[in-house]
Write a structure and sequence with these properties.
By secondary structure, the protein is an alpha+beta fold. Strand 2 and strand 3 form a beta hairpin. The chain starts with 10 loop residues before the first helix and ends with a helix. The chain has three helices and four strands, in the order αβαβββα. 1% of the residues are buried. A four-stranded antiparallel β-sheet has the order 1-2-3-4. The chain folds into two domains: 32 residues; 74 residues, SpoA-like (Surface presentation of antigens (SPOA)), CATH 2.30.330.
Length: 109
């Protein structure tokens, strides 16, 4: 139906179809599995030193206590955070999300 200036007034039904299409497109990617990893720190060691590790051994990492840890999805840095304990389980509180522009830049590296 056209209004007094000649434009189509029936935007409500067109908008809902667009929303449904967008929901279907989004639902398509919601089931894609991703690998999420959290890195506390890194170290390098010789195979001989690795073989000497036993229960209770301490491995020194390249980060200090209290420094933010990195959160990766599919090996790409997406956030930084800190360790928290919730109901006696470890978790991660995100403190800094990498901007979309920085994430795009990291794809070229």
């Amino acid at each position: 139906m056209a209004n007094s200036n000649g434009t189509n007034q029936d935007t409500k039904s067109g908008g809902s179809q667009g929303e449904e299409t967008g929901e279907r497109e989004l639902s398509f990617i919601l089931d894609i599995p991703l690998e999420l990893s959290v890195e506390l720190g890194k170290t390098r060691m010789l195979v001989n030193d690795l073989l000497q590790l036993s229960q209770g051994s301490i491995v020194e990492l390249n980060k200090l206590a209290g420094e933010p840890l990195e959160v990766y999805i599919n090996r790409k840095l997406i956030a930084r955070g800190e360790v928290v304990v919730v109901n006696e389980k470890f978790g991660v509180r995100l403190t800094d999300i990498i901007t979309p522009m920085d994430r795009v830049k990291s794809l070229t590296n």
